[in-house]
Amino acid sequence: MASTEVHHVPRCTCEGRKSVEDDLAEDSTRTCQARTEDASGLETTTTTTAVSRNYRPRGSLARVLFDKQKADERLEAYDKRQWYTVDTSKIRDDLLKLWVPLGAGPYRDQPDKAAEIFLMRSSERSDSLPLQAWHSLARSALSWFISRTSINGLLGRGSMHVFSCEQFEKLMEASGFKGPWGSLVDLGAGDGATTTHVAHLFERVYATDISPPMRWALSKRKFTVLDVEKWHEEAGPFDVILCLNLLDRCDRPNTLLRQFRTSLTPGGRLVVALVLPFSPYVEVGERGDHKPSEYLPVKGNGLEGQIAGLVDRVFAPLGLKCLAWSKLPYLCEGDLGQAYYFLDDVLFVLEAVPDVAYNYEEKNETSEKVRSQEGPV
Ligand SMILES: C[S@@+](CC[C@H](N)C(=O)[O-])C[C@H]1O[C@@H](n2cnc3c(N)ncnc32)[C@H](O)[C@@H]1O
């Protein structure tokens, strides 16, 4: 089944199927040609009957495995350069200057070692039938009582990967961070997988999460777990605050954003990661319809347009200045559907503008909207 070894996925040279019925026709004798490269890079052409392309097993387990194999082949063939690049023609000049490429390889557009390891482990786990069968059973039973995040925390599954230590250090350096590397807080840290990559750089590491199993996972990793509401009072100010993939998953993102400016030490940095295009979804919120209670005004067309929208309309009015930004894949462990999942994640490194240069009342364009529940969420 799926493997992250680099191998060449055959590129079919004939027309695709027309319908699902066609796909299921097992007796077709149409032929097609597939070009493959051998280990030496030589291209060979093989002719196969349509049976191999059309075949779809009838038993449900066999069908699941067959579909997974197809999905994994599509993942293998996906051009991963797209993970680390943006359409620069759609980015403003002042923002382009702050771009930090975080991919590996000569063109800095390939997964680095940590991402490769994550993908390999994820592939292996997704291929383990007993493990996936257990997860699937437990998930359907537990989903009546607790959130998906808490189920993942309990089962120790669904781990995510944002950045490696090297990528984080590169971002911090590009933002001109001079230290000290005293305290770090990771808000909405999940199981703490990403926190673990950078924890050794700091003297004190704090974390929060709203899900009890995730809090348990965080304390098992020896991070000091703070209250989700009072984290800034309990241990701040912090040299570095991580807010990774939380603004679109928490109920009151504006309240959280307003706490950042005063929770950073002078010269401290806030690192925000956000999946774009913006699509908020709250597992357990006040409204009960999975929409956030507070509207975050993320405007702009597509991923590139929303980057400028966030910098100008969300961060700047709250006295948070963007010093560097980048784009990475937000990787999630796979299951019987496919080896892993990914989303486009944009990272921003921000600093708090000093008091003298910042007047909250004058500059906060979003203040009227902060508590609004009417916005297009
Ligand atoms: C998408 S996950 C991100 C996990 C991790 N930061 C990452 O980037 O992989 C969002 C996490 O935020 C947590 N969460 C949601 N609302 C929160 C809140 N108000 N305070 C702290 N954590 C929250 C969820 O339980 C979940 O673990």
From TrEMBL:
InterPro entries per UniProt: METL9, SAM-dependent_MTases_sf
Pfam families: DREV (PF05219)
Domain of life assignment: Eukaryota
Protein name: Methyltransferase-like protein 9
Chain ranges passing through the membrane: none
UniProt xrefs under Gene3D superfamilies: Vaccinia Virus protein VP39
UniProt GO molecular function: protein-L-histidine N-pros-methyltransferase activity
Species in which this protein is naturally found: Odynerus spinipes
Lineage of source species: Eukaryota, Metazoa, Ecdysozoa, Arthropoda, Hexapoda
